[in-house]
Amino acid sequence: MKYNIKIDMNVENSQTLILKNIKPNSIVLEFGPASGYMTEYMKKALNCKVYGVEIDPHFAEKAKKFAEEVIVGDIEDYEWVDRYHSIKFDYIIFADVLEHLKNPHQVLLKSLNLLKEEGDVIISIPNISHNAIIMELMEGKFEYKHEGLLDDTHLRFFTRQSVLGLLDSVGLFPTNIQTTVLSPEQTEFKQDYRKFPEPVSTFLKDRQDGHVYQYIVSARKKSSLGNEQLNKKFDLIFDRYDTSKYLQIFWQEEDCKYFSEGASKRYTLQLNRETKIDIDIPSDVLKNRVRIDPVNCEAFIKIYKIKIMLKNGDVLHTYKTKEEISKLLVPIHDLLVNYVQENENGLEFLSIGRDPQLQVNGLEKYSDYNQDIIISIEIKIDEDYKKYLISCWEKLYQHNCFLQKMVGNN
Protein backbone atom coordinates (compact mmCIF):
# COMPACT_ATOMS: atom_id res chain seq x y z
CA MET A 1 0.00 0.00 0.00
CA LYS A 2 1.20 3.50 -0.78
CA TYR A 3 -0.25 5.19 2.24
CA ASN A 4 0.06 5.30 5.97
CA ILE A 5 -3.15 4.86 7.94
CA LYS A 6 -4.27 4.58 11.54
CA ILE A 7 -6.01 1.44 12.75
CA ASP A 8 -9.40 1.99 14.37
CA MET A 9 -11.00 -1.35 15.25
CA ASN A 10 -14.41 0.32 15.53
CA VAL A 11 -14.30 0.92 11.77
CA GLU A 12 -14.87 -1.97 9.37
CA ASN A 13 -12.39 -2.03 6.49
CA SER A 14 -10.03 -4.57 4.95
CA GLN A 15 -7.32 -3.93 7.56
CA THR A 16 -9.58 -4.37 10.58
CA LEU A 17 -11.27 -7.43 9.06
CA ILE A 18 -7.84 -9.02 8.67
CA LEU A 19 -6.76 -8.12 12.20
CA LYS A 20 -9.94 -9.56 13.71
CA ASN A 21 -8.84 -12.94 12.35
CA ILE A 22 -5.48 -12.87 14.17
CA LYS A 23 -5.29 -14.61 17.53
CA PRO A 24 -3.14 -13.17 20.34
CA ASN A 25 0.43 -14.42 20.84
CA SER A 26 0.74 -15.61 17.25
CA ILE A 27 3.77 -15.65 14.96
CA VAL A 28 2.96 -13.67 11.83
CA LEU A 29 4.63 -13.09 8.46
CA GLU A 30 3.36 -9.84 6.95
CA PHE A 31 4.15 -9.13 3.32
CA GLY A 32 4.06 -5.42 2.46
CA PRO A 33 3.55 -3.96 5.95
CA ALA A 34 4.08 -0.39 4.62
CA SER A 35 4.63 1.90 7.63
CA GLY A 36 3.66 -0.86 10.06
CA TYR A 37 0.15 0.29 11.01
CA MET A 38 -1.09 -3.33 11.20
CA THR A 39 2.25 -4.50 12.57
CA GLU A 40 1.93 -2.06 15.46
CA TYR A 41 -1.56 -3.30 16.33
CA MET A 42 -0.50 -6.95 16.23
CA LYS A 43 2.52 -6.20 18.43
CA LYS A 44 0.87 -3.93 21.00
CA ALA A 45 -2.72 -5.19 21.15
CA LEU A 46 -2.23 -8.88 20.33
CA ASN A 47 1.31 -9.48 21.61
CA CYS A 48 2.26 -11.14 18.32
CA LYS A 49 5.75 -11.68 16.95
CA VAL A 50 5.69 -10.17 13.47
CA TYR A 51 8.18 -10.60 10.65
CA GLY A 52 7.93 -8.58 7.45
CA VAL A 53 9.03 -8.03 3.87
CA GLU A 54 8.77 -4.43 2.60
CA ILE A 55 10.12 -2.99 -0.66
CA ASP A 56 10.08 0.67 0.44
CA PRO A 57 13.08 1.45 2.73
CA HIS A 58 11.33 4.48 4.26
CA PHE A 59 8.28 2.43 5.25
CA ALA A 60 10.43 -0.52 6.32
CA GLU A 61 12.25 1.63 8.89
CA LYS A 62 8.91 2.58 10.44
CA ALA A 63 7.62 -1.00 10.46
CA LYS A 64 10.82 -2.30 12.11
CA LYS A 65 9.85 -0.51 15.33
CA PHE A 66 7.08 -3.07 15.86
CA ALA A 67 8.54 -6.18 14.18
CA GLU A 68 11.05 -8.84 15.09
CA GLU A 69 12.62 -8.30 11.67
CA VAL A 70 11.73 -6.64 8.37
CA ILE A 71 13.54 -7.59 5.17
CA VAL A 72 13.93 -4.62 2.82
CA GLY A 73 13.51 -5.82 -0.73
CA ASP A 74 11.29 -7.11 -3.50
CA ILE A 75 9.08 -10.03 -2.44
CA GLU A 76 9.86 -11.74 -5.75
CA ASP A 77 13.60 -11.72 -5.03
CA TYR A 78 12.72 -14.42 -2.46
CA GLU A 79 15.34 -13.43 0.12
CA TRP A 80 12.69 -14.17 2.76
CA VAL A 81 12.56 -17.86 1.77
CA ASP A 82 16.03 -18.51 3.21
CA ARG A 83 15.97 -15.84 5.93
CA TYR A 84 12.78 -17.15 7.54
CA HIS A 85 13.13 -20.85 6.64
CA SER A 86 13.52 -21.92 10.28
CA ILE A 87 10.30 -20.18 11.41
CA LYS A 88 6.83 -21.70 11.18
CA PHE A 89 4.12 -19.04 11.07
CA ASP A 90 0.58 -19.13 12.44
CA TYR A 91 -0.48 -16.51 9.88
CA ILE A 92 0.87 -15.23 6.58
CA ILE A 93 -0.72 -11.94 5.51
CA PHE A 94 -0.94 -10.50 2.01
CA ALA A 95 -2.88 -7.24 2.53
CA ASP A 96 -3.30 -5.58 -0.88
CA VAL A 97 -0.12 -7.24 -2.12
CA LEU A 98 -0.82 -10.08 -4.58
CA GLU A 99 -2.16 -7.75 -7.28
CA HIS A 100 1.25 -5.99 -7.34
CA LEU A 101 3.22 -9.17 -8.11
CA LYS A 102 4.36 -10.60 -11.44
CA ASN A 103 3.78 -14.16 -10.26
CA PRO A 104 1.48 -14.30 -7.21
CA HIS A 105 1.06 -18.07 -7.70
CA GLN A 106 4.79 -18.66 -7.16
CA VAL A 107 4.96 -16.35 -4.13
CA LEU A 108 1.99 -18.06 -2.48
CA LEU A 109 3.41 -21.49 -3.21
CA LYS A 110 6.80 -20.69 -1.67
CA SER A 111 5.21 -19.03 1.37
CA LEU A 112 3.35 -22.24 2.26
CA ASN A 113 6.68 -23.85 3.23
CA LEU A 114 6.81 -21.35 6.12
CA LEU A 115 3.21 -21.91 7.25
CA LYS A 116 2.24 -24.23 10.09
CA GLU A 117 0.10 -27.17 9.01
CA GLU A 118 -2.99 -25.57 10.57
CA GLY A 119 -1.89 -21.99 9.92
CA ASP A 120 -3.84 -19.43 7.90
CA VAL A 121 -3.01 -17.40 4.83
CA ILE A 122 -5.04 -14.16 4.88
CA ILE A 123 -5.34 -12.02 1.78
CA SER A 124 -7.16 -8.83 0.82
CA ILE A 125 -7.52 -8.17 -2.88
CA PRO A 126 -9.50 -5.66 -4.99
CA ASN A 127 -12.39 -6.75 -7.20
CA ILE A 128 -11.90 -5.82 -10.87
CA SER A 129 -15.53 -6.75 -11.59
CA HIS A 130 -16.90 -3.91 -9.46
CA ASN A 131 -19.78 -2.13 -11.19
CA ALA A 132 -17.77 1.10 -11.31
CA ILE A 133 -15.22 -0.60 -13.58
CA ILE A 134 -17.94 -2.05 -15.80
CA MET A 135 -19.56 1.39 -16.06
CA GLU A 136 -16.20 2.91 -16.98
CA LEU A 137 -15.71 0.30 -19.72
CA MET A 138 -19.21 0.97 -21.06
CA GLU A 139 -18.10 4.57 -21.52
CA GLY A 140 -14.91 3.44 -23.26
CA LYS A 141 -12.65 4.26 -20.32
CA PHE A 142 -9.96 2.25 -18.52
CA GLU A 143 -7.97 4.87 -16.65
CA TYR A 144 -5.40 4.03 -14.00
CA LYS A 145 -5.47 5.94 -10.70
CA HIS A 146 -2.96 6.71 -7.97
CA GLU A 147 -4.68 4.10 -5.80
CA GLY A 148 -7.80 1.95 -5.64
CA LEU A 149 -9.21 -0.65 -8.03
CA LEU A 150 -7.05 0.52 -10.95
CA ASP A 151 -3.97 1.45 -8.95
CA ASP A 152 -1.22 2.28 -11.44
CA THR A 153 1.10 -0.26 -9.78
CA HIS A 154 -1.29 -3.22 -10.16
CA LEU A 155 0.10 -5.96 -12.38
CA ARG A 156 -2.71 -8.48 -11.85
CA PHE A 157 -6.48 -8.17 -11.62
CA PHE A 158 -8.88 -10.49 -9.81
CA THR A 159 -12.54 -11.41 -9.58
CA ARG A 160 -14.05 -13.62 -6.88
CA GLN A 161 -13.69 -16.65 -9.14
CA SER A 162 -10.04 -15.96 -10.00
CA VAL A 163 -9.17 -15.30 -6.34
CA LEU A 164 -10.57 -18.68 -5.36
CA GLY A 165 -8.88 -20.25 -8.40
CA LEU A 166 -5.50 -18.85 -7.35
CA LEU A 167 -5.87 -20.27 -3.84
CA ASP A 168 -6.96 -23.64 -5.20
CA SER A 169 -3.97 -23.79 -7.57
CA VAL A 170 -1.50 -23.72 -4.65
CA GLY A 171 -3.43 -26.17 -2.46
CA LEU A 172 -5.29 -23.66 -0.27
CA PHE A 173 -8.98 -23.76 0.62
CA PRO A 174 -10.96 -20.74 1.90
CA THR A 175 -12.23 -21.09 5.46
CA ASN A 176 -13.67 -17.56 5.66
CA ILE A 177 -14.66 -15.01 3.01
CA GLN A 178 -15.55 -11.40 3.79
CA THR A 179 -16.01 -8.31 1.65
CA THR A 180 -15.88 -4.54 1.83
CA VAL A 181 -18.60 -2.76 -0.12
CA LEU A 182 -18.79 0.57 -1.96
CA SER A 183 -21.37 1.82 -4.41
CA PRO A 184 -20.01 3.22 -7.71
CA GLU A 185 -20.52 6.80 -6.49
CA GLN A 186 -18.34 6.14 -3.46
CA THR A 187 -15.40 4.77 -5.44
CA GLU A 188 -12.59 6.80 -6.94
CA PHE A 189 -14.47 6.71 -10.29
CA LYS A 190 -17.55 8.57 -8.97
CA GLN A 191 -19.80 6.69 -11.39
CA ASP A 192 -23.54 7.29 -11.41
CA TYR A 193 -26.28 4.79 -12.32
CA ARG A 194 -28.46 7.64 -13.58
CA LYS A 195 -26.21 8.01 -16.63
CA PHE A 196 -27.29 4.60 -17.94
CA PRO A 197 -30.61 3.23 -19.26
CA GLU A 198 -32.81 1.86 -16.48
CA PRO A 199 -32.59 -1.81 -17.63
CA VAL A 200 -28.78 -1.55 -17.59
CA SER A 201 -28.74 0.07 -14.15
CA THR A 202 -31.15 -2.54 -12.77
CA PHE A 203 -29.02 -5.38 -14.11
CA LEU A 204 -25.86 -3.91 -12.60
CA LYS A 205 -27.46 -3.20 -9.22
CA ASP A 206 -28.60 -6.83 -8.98
CA ARG A 207 -25.14 -8.32 -9.64
CA GLN A 208 -23.91 -10.21 -6.59
CA ASP A 209 -20.38 -8.80 -6.64
CA GLY A 210 -21.28 -5.48 -8.22
CA HIS A 211 -20.53 -3.45 -5.09
CA VAL A 212 -17.77 -5.63 -3.63
CA TYR A 213 -14.67 -3.43 -3.45
CA GLN A 214 -12.32 -5.94 -1.82
CA TYR A 215 -12.32 -9.61 -0.88
CA ILE A 216 -10.78 -10.63 2.44
CA VAL A 217 -10.12 -14.36 2.46
CA SER A 218 -8.66 -16.68 5.10
CA ALA A 219 -7.41 -19.98 3.70
CA ARG A 220 -5.73 -23.15 4.95
CA LYS A 221 -3.81 -25.99 3.37
CA LYS A 222 -6.21 -28.55 1.96
CA SER A 223 -4.08 -31.24 3.61
CA SER A 224 -5.04 -29.88 7.05
CA LEU A 225 -8.81 -29.97 6.42
CA GLY A 226 -11.33 -32.80 6.54
CA ASN A 227 -13.81 -33.71 3.81
CA GLU A 228 -16.66 -31.87 5.54
CA GLN A 229 -14.69 -28.61 5.53
CA LEU A 230 -13.51 -29.10 1.94
CA ASN A 231 -17.10 -29.54 0.77
CA LYS A 232 -18.24 -26.31 2.42
CA LYS A 233 -20.02 -23.89 0.08
CA PHE A 234 -19.66 -20.14 0.48
CA ASP A 235 -22.48 -17.72 -0.16
CA LEU A 236 -20.99 -14.25 0.03
CA ILE A 237 -22.98 -11.75 2.04
CA PHE A 238 -23.33 -8.73 -0.19
CA ASP A 239 -25.04 -5.37 -0.04
CA ARG A 240 -27.36 -4.30 -2.84
CA TYR A 241 -27.60 -0.74 -4.04
CA ASP A 242 -29.93 0.37 -1.23
CA THR A 243 -27.20 0.16 1.40
CA SER A 244 -27.41 2.02 4.69
CA LYS A 245 -26.91 5.77 4.79
CA TYR A 246 -23.85 7.16 6.51
CA LEU A 247 -21.66 10.19 7.03
CA GLN A 248 -17.99 9.70 6.19
CA ILE A 249 -14.95 11.74 7.13
CA PHE A 250 -11.65 11.63 5.22
CA TRP A 251 -8.28 13.01 6.24
CA GLN A 252 -5.11 13.37 4.21
CA GLU A 253 -2.40 11.10 5.57
CA GLU A 254 1.35 11.53 5.59
CA ASP A 255 3.00 10.70 2.24
CA CYS A 256 -0.37 10.62 0.47
CA LYS A 257 -1.61 13.31 -1.92
CA TYR A 258 -5.15 12.00 -2.10
CA PHE A 259 -8.03 11.03 0.16
CA SER A 260 -8.48 7.27 0.51
CA GLU A 261 -10.95 4.87 2.10
CA GLY A 262 -8.15 3.68 4.38
CA ALA A 263 -7.88 7.12 5.97
CA SER A 264 -11.56 7.57 6.68
CA LYS A 265 -14.33 6.70 9.13
CA ARG A 266 -18.02 6.06 8.59
CA TYR A 267 -20.87 6.93 10.94
CA THR A 268 -24.32 5.43 10.39
CA LEU A 269 -27.06 8.04 10.04
CA GLN A 270 -30.59 8.05 11.42
CA LEU A 271 -32.67 9.68 8.70
CA ASN A 272 -35.48 12.21 9.06
CA ARG A 273 -34.62 13.31 12.58
CA GLU A 274 -31.99 15.38 14.31
CA THR A 275 -28.92 13.33 15.20
CA LYS A 276 -25.67 14.11 17.02
CA ILE A 277 -22.52 12.54 15.58
CA ASP A 278 -19.15 12.73 17.34
CA ILE A 279 -16.35 12.46 14.78
CA ASP A 280 -12.85 11.57 16.01
CA ILE A 281 -9.98 13.42 14.29
CA PRO A 282 -6.39 12.19 14.91
CA SER A 283 -4.12 14.98 16.16
CA ASP A 284 -1.44 14.26 13.56
CA VAL A 285 -3.73 15.14 10.63
CA LEU A 286 -5.13 18.45 11.91
CA LYS A 287 -2.71 20.38 9.69
CA ASN A 288 -3.70 18.34 6.64
CA ARG A 289 -6.80 18.46 4.46
CA VAL A 290 -9.99 17.08 6.01
CA ARG A 291 -13.23 16.35 4.17
CA ILE A 292 -16.71 15.41 5.39
CA ASP A 293 -19.18 13.61 3.13
CA PRO A 294 -22.42 14.29 5.06
CA VAL A 295 -24.48 11.53 3.41
CA ASN A 296 -24.31 9.07 0.51
CA CYS A 297 -27.58 9.96 -1.22
CA GLU A 298 -29.65 12.85 -2.53
CA ALA A 299 -31.13 14.58 0.51
CA PHE A 300 -31.91 17.76 2.36
CA ILE A 301 -29.25 18.42 5.00
CA LYS A 302 -29.48 20.77 7.96
CA ILE A 303 -26.52 21.28 10.28
CA TYR A 304 -27.78 22.85 13.50
CA LYS A 305 -24.59 23.21 15.46
CA ILE A 306 -20.94 22.10 15.47
CA LYS A 307 -18.68 21.84 18.50
CA ILE A 308 -14.92 21.30 18.40
CA MET A 309 -13.97 19.46 21.59
CA LEU A 310 -11.14 17.63 23.29
CA LYS A 311 -11.78 14.03 24.28
CA ASN A 312 -12.13 15.04 27.94
CA GLY A 313 -15.20 17.08 26.96
CA ASP A 314 -13.61 20.54 26.96
CA VAL A 315 -15.29 22.63 24.24
CA LEU A 316 -12.78 24.62 22.17
CA HIS A 317 -15.26 26.34 19.86
CA THR A 318 -18.95 26.27 18.95
CA TYR A 319 -20.30 27.11 15.49
CA LYS A 320 -24.00 28.01 15.51
CA THR A 321 -24.91 30.61 12.94
CA LYS A 322 -25.18 30.23 9.20
CA GLU A 323 -22.16 32.51 8.77
CA GLU A 324 -19.99 30.63 11.28
CA ILE A 325 -20.77 27.17 9.89
CA SER A 326 -20.27 28.29 6.29
CA LYS A 327 -16.71 29.38 7.14
CA LEU A 328 -15.92 26.00 8.70
CA LEU A 329 -17.61 23.81 6.05
CA VAL A 330 -17.25 24.69 2.37
CA PRO A 331 -19.18 22.69 -0.28
CA ILE A 332 -16.85 21.26 -2.95
CA HIS A 333 -19.02 18.64 -4.67
CA ASP A 334 -22.70 17.76 -5.17
CA LEU A 335 -23.99 20.32 -2.63
CA LEU A 336 -26.06 23.48 -2.90
CA VAL A 337 -26.34 25.94 0.00
CA ASN A 338 -29.83 27.19 0.83
CA TYR A 339 -29.19 30.93 0.76
CA VAL A 340 -32.88 31.74 1.32
CA GLN A 341 -33.21 29.96 4.67
CA GLU A 342 -35.12 32.12 7.13
CA ASN A 343 -33.38 31.10 10.37
CA GLU A 344 -29.89 32.50 10.93
CA ASN A 345 -28.97 29.54 13.14
CA GLY A 346 -27.60 26.46 11.41
CA LEU A 347 -26.91 25.92 7.73
CA GLU A 348 -29.01 24.11 5.13
CA PHE A 349 -27.73 22.21 2.11
CA LEU A 350 -29.24 20.22 -0.71
CA SER A 351 -27.31 17.11 -1.79
CA ILE A 352 -27.83 16.85 -5.56
CA GLY A 353 -25.87 13.60 -5.94
CA ARG A 354 -24.74 10.56 -4.03
CA ASP A 355 -21.29 11.88 -3.17
CA PRO A 356 -21.71 15.31 -1.51
CA GLN A 357 -18.48 16.69 -0.07
CA LEU A 358 -17.60 19.43 2.41
CA GLN A 359 -14.10 20.78 2.91
CA VAL A 360 -13.34 21.43 6.60
CA ASN A 361 -11.39 24.65 7.16
CA GLY A 362 -9.43 25.97 10.11
CA LEU A 363 -8.63 22.77 12.02
CA GLU A 364 -4.90 23.49 12.02
CA LYS A 365 -5.36 26.00 14.87
CA TYR A 366 -6.36 23.12 17.15
CA SER A 367 -3.10 21.21 16.52
CA ASP A 368 -1.40 23.23 19.29
CA TYR A 369 -3.29 21.11 21.84
CA ASN A 370 -1.35 18.00 20.67
CA GLN A 371 -4.46 15.89 21.21
CA ASP A 372 -7.05 14.13 19.10
CA ILE A 373 -10.17 16.26 18.79
CA ILE A 374 -13.86 15.58 18.34
CA ILE A 375 -16.07 17.35 15.82
CA SER A 376 -19.56 17.04 17.31
CA ILE A 377 -22.21 17.71 14.65
CA GLU A 378 -25.93 18.11 15.26
CA ILE A 379 -27.41 17.24 11.89
CA LYS A 380 -30.64 16.20 10.18
CA ILE A 381 -30.76 14.27 6.91
CA ASP A 382 -34.11 14.12 5.12
CA GLU A 383 -34.41 12.06 1.92
CA ASP A 384 -37.70 13.77 1.06
CA TYR A 385 -35.80 16.74 -0.32
CA LYS A 386 -38.46 17.72 -2.87
CA LYS A 387 -40.60 19.47 -0.26
CA TYR A 388 -37.63 21.65 0.61
CA LEU A 389 -37.10 22.52 -3.05
CA ILE A 390 -40.74 23.61 -3.23
CA SER A 391 -40.29 25.65 -0.05
CA CYS A 392 -37.22 27.38 -1.51
CA TRP A 393 -39.06 28.20 -4.74
CA GLU A 394 -41.97 29.64 -2.75
CA LYS A 395 -39.59 31.84 -0.75
CA LEU A 396 -37.87 33.03 -3.93
CA TYR A 397 -41.24 33.75 -5.51
CA GLN A 398 -42.38 35.73 -2.47
CA HIS A 399 -39.10 37.65 -2.43
CA ASN A 400 -39.43 38.40 -6.14
CA CYS A 401 -43.01 39.65 -5.63
CA PHE A 402 -41.82 41.88 -2.80
CA LEU A 403 -39.07 43.39 -4.98
CA GLN A 404 -41.51 44.00 -7.84
CA LYS A 405 -43.87 45.72 -5.44
CA MET A 406 -41.07 47.92 -4.12
CA VAL A 407 -40.03 48.87 -7.64
CA GLY A 408 -43.68 49.62 -8.52
CA ASN A 409 -44.09 51.87 -5.50
CA ASN A 410 -41.08 53.89 -6.56
State the gist of this model.
The chain has 410 residues and is of the alpha+beta class.
Describe it for me?
By secondary structure, this protein is of the alpha+beta class. It has two domains: 14-230, Rossmann fold (3-Layer(aba) Sandwich), CATH 3.40.50.150; 246-385, no CATH class. It has eleven helices and 18 strands. 35% of the residues are buried. Residues 236-243 have low confidence and may be disordered.
Unreliable residue stretches: 236-243
- Outline: elongated
Question: Can you name the CATH architecture of the largest domain?
Answer: 3-Layer(aba) Sandwich
Alpha-beta classification: alpha+beta
- Strand order in space, largest sheet: 3-2-1-4-5-7-6
Q: What is the CATH level 1 assignment of the largest domain?
A: Alpha Beta
User: Which percent band covers the strand fraction?
Assistant: 25-35%
Give the terminus-to-terminus CA distance. 68 Å
Give the strand tally.
18
The residue-averaged pLDDT reads: 89
Please state the CA-atom Rg, rounded to the nearest Å: 25 Å
| Approximate helicity band | 10-25%
Q: What is the helix/strand order?
A: HEHEHEHEHEHHEHEHEEEEEEHEEEEEH
Quickly count the helices. 11
Main beta-sheet strand count, sense and barrel state: 7 strands, mixed
Task: Output the keywords.
alpha+beta, Rossmann fold, seven-stranded mixed β-sheet, six-stranded antiparallel β-sheet, 11 helices, 30% strand, elongated
